[in-house]
Design brief:
133 residues, five-stranded mixed β-barrel
C-alpha cells in the first residue's frame, strides 16, 4: 500500500507569504525549520510549506516567523518555469493541517506561562471524597 503522509514539527523561518489565485483562493507559503540529531550533532532541515484556502487564511492571520507549529500533509515535487526560461523543480509539503503548540514558552521569554492558574498541590491527610470507580 502506498501512502504519502508527512508530519513535521518545527518553527517558521519567515512570515507566511499570502497570495490569492485568479479564482479567489488564498495560498500561503513559508519555510519551516526542524531539528534532528545525527552523529551527536544537531542538524536543521528546512522544508517549504504551502497551504490553500481556509488553512492559508488562518496561517496568514495567526502565524509569524518563529511560530512553533506541527504540520500534516503530503510531500511533492513540482516543475515551474523560471524568469530566465529554464525549468526548475521545487519540493514542498502541501499542508492539510497546521496546529500551534499549546505548551507555554520557556520562562524569561516575556510571554504567558499560565501562572494565573496556580500550581497543583498534593493532598495531605484523609479526605471524605469518594472516587466513584
Amino acid at each position: 500500500m502506498d501512502s504519502n503522509n508527512v508530519w513535521i514539527i518545527g518553527r517558521l523561518g519567515r512570515d507566511p507569504q499570502i497570495r490569492v489565485t485568479s479564482k479567489g483562493t488564498a495560498v500561503a507559503s513559508f519555510s519551516m525549520a526542524s531539528g534532528r540529531e545525527w552523529n551527536g550533532k544537531t542538524l536543521t532541515d528546512w522544508n517549504n510549506v504551502v497551504a490553500w484556502g481556509r488553512i492559508a487564511e488562518a496561517a496568514g492571520n495567526l502565524l509569524k516567523k518563529g511560530s512553533e507549529v506541527i504540520i500534516h500533509g503530503r510531500i511533492g515535487t513540482r516543475k515551474y518555469t523560471a524568469k530566465d526560461g529554464s525549468d526548475r523543480y521545487i519540493t514542498e509539503v502541501t499542508a492539510d493541517f497546521i496546529g500551534k503548540s499549546i505548551v507555554p514558552p520557556a520562562s524569561g521569554s516575556g510571554l504567558s506561562t499560565f501562572g494565573q492558574f496556580g500550581t497543583a498541590e498534593p493532598e495531605t491527610g484523609n479526605t471524605s471524597e469518594q472516587i466513584p470507580f
